[in-house]
TrEMBL record:
Domain of life: Bacteria
Record lineage: Bacteria, Pseudomonadati, Planctomycetota, Planctomycetia, Pirellulales
InterPro entries the UniProt entry points to: Glyco_hydro/deAcase_b/a-brl (IPR011330), NODB_dom (IPR002509)
NodB homology domain: residues covered: 25-300
UniProt feature coiled coil, ranges: none
GO molecular function: hydrolase activity, acting on carbon-nitrogen (but not peptide) bonds
Official protein name in the record: NodB homology domain-containing protein
One Pfam match: Polysacc_deac_1
Biological process according to GO: carbohydrate metabolic process
C-alpha cells in the first residue's frame, strides 16, 4: 500500500435558496445564486493543489442556465464527478411517499445527464436523510454508492442549534426534528461498507454484492465521533485558526491510525467570506473574512492531499474491496 492511504473529497453544492428556506425565510425563492463566486473560489483553491472533486448537485439548480454555466467550471479540475443531491433539497425525505422520493432522485438523475453528460452513480440525501425507499430507487437506477450517513455524536446538538435558529413553523418544524439522523446515525460505521438493499423480496438482499450498495459515510473523528467536515473546521477557525489546525492535524492522524479511509465534505460557504453575502451571516463559519478563510482552506486541503491519495468518491469506491476489513473506530 502507498504511504498515502486512499481518501475522497466531495462538495454538497447547496445554493443560497436552500439555506434561506431552512432558516425559515419566506423570500427564499427569489434569492440570487452565489454559485459564480463560490464555484470560482473552489476551483481556484482545488485546481493548484491537483485535487479532484465529487459534486452533489441539486436538480432545481439545473433548471437555471446561469447555474449550469457556473457548474461547468468544475471541468477545469483534474477530475470531477457529478452526483445526485435530490431535486428540491428537502431535508426530510423520511417523511415523503415512495412516489415523491422516486421523483426527487430520478428527475435530478436525468437533469444531471442532460447538463453534464455524466451518468450519476452516487447519492447524498439532504440533511443526511436516507429512508429505505431511497436505497430501493438507487438500486433500480444502478447507483454504486450512497453517502447520506453522518455518524456524528453531535447530531442531537446540531439539531438543537438548528431548531433554535430557524424560523420554520408548524409541520415543517415537526419534520425538522428528525434531522441529522438522530442517535441511530451515531451507531453507524464511520468507514465505507456494503449495505444490503431493502428489497420487497428479502431473499434478493445479501452481502454478495448483487443486492447491496456501498455506503460511504461523511467521516467523523474516530472514537469521539465529532465532525471533521470543513464547515465545522471553518466554524472553529472563526474563533481560533490555531485550534482548528491542531484539531484537523489530529483528526487526519487518527484516521491513519485507525485505518479509516476518510471521505471529507465541503460546502460553498467554506469558500465565501463574511463580506461576500450578508444573507449567509447566520451560517456556521461565516464570521471569517474571505482571504483568511481561503488561506485556511488552502492549508487544510493541502495537508489532506499530502497525507492521503485524494480521489472522487467513485474512484474511492472502486479502490475498496467488498470484503476489506481493517481496524476501524
Ligand atoms: Zn445539501
Amino acid at each position: 500500500m502507498s504511504d498515502r492511504p486512499p481518501a475522497s473529497l466531495s462538495l454538497d453544492l447547496d445554493n443560497k435558496w436552500a439555506y434561506l428556506r431552512a432558516a425559515g425565510r419566506e423570500d427564499w425563492e427569489s434569492s440570487d445564486s452565489y454559485f459564480p463566486l463560490a464555484i470560482s473560489n473552489i476551483v481556484d483553491v482545488l485546481g493548484p493543489l491537483g485535487l479532484p472533486l465529487t459534486v452533489f448537485l441539486v436538480g432545481r439548480d439545473l433548471q437555471r442556465d446561469e447555474d449550469v454555466e457556473s457548474i461547468a467550471k468544475f471541468a477545469s479540475l483534474p477530475n470531477w464527478e457529478a452526483a445526485n443531491h435530490s431535486l428540491n433539497h428537502l431535508p426530510w425525505m423520511h417523511t415523503m411517499s415512495d412516489e415523491e422520493i422516486e421523483t426527487e432522485i430520478r428527475v435530478t438523475h436525468d437533469a444531471i445527464f442532460a447538463s453534464t453528460k455524466q451518468t450519476p452513480v452516487g447519492f447524498r440525501g439532504p440533511g443526511f436523510s436516507c429512508p429505505d425507499e431511497v436505497l430501493r430507487v438507487l438500486g433500480r437506477l444502478g447507483y454504486q454508492y450512497d453517502a447520506s450517513i453522518f455518524p456524528t455524536s453531535m447530531a442531537p446538538i446540531a439539531r438543537a442549534v438548528f431548531l433554535a435558529r430557524t424560523k420554520l413553523k408548524g409541520e415543517q418544524r415537526e419534520k425538522a426534528k428528525k434531522l441529522y439522523g438522530g442517535f441511530a446515525a451515531m451507531r453507524s460505521p464511520n468507514w465505507p461498507h456494503r449495505r444490503a438493499l431493502p428489497c420487497p423480496d428479502a431473499s434478493a438482499s445479501d452481502d454478495s454484492g448483487l443486492g447491496s450498495i456501498w455506503e460511504v459515510p461523511v467521516t467523523v473523528l474516530p472514537v469521539l465521533r465529532t465532525p471533521i467536515h470543513f464547515s465545522y473546521l471553518t466554524f472553529v477557525a472563526g474563533y481560533s485558526v490555531t485550534v482548528a489546525k491542531t484539531y484537523f492535524r489530529a483528526a487526519l492522524t487518527a484516521c491513519r491510525l485507525f485505518g479509516t479511509t476518510p471521505s471529507l465534505l465541503l460546502h460553498p460557504p467554506d469558500f465565501l467570506g463574511s463580506e461576500d453575502d450578508a444573507d449567509m451571516s447566520y451560517f456556521p463559519g461565516m464570521k471569517m473574512k474571505r482571504d483568511a478563510k481561503l488561506e485556511f482552506m488552502t492549508w487544510a486541503l493541502s495537508m489532506y492531499s499530502q497525507q492521503f491519495t485524494v480521489s472522487t468518491m467513485l474512484d474511492q469506491v472502486h479502490q475498496l474491496s467488498p470484503y476489506s476489513t481493517t481496524c476501524h473506530a
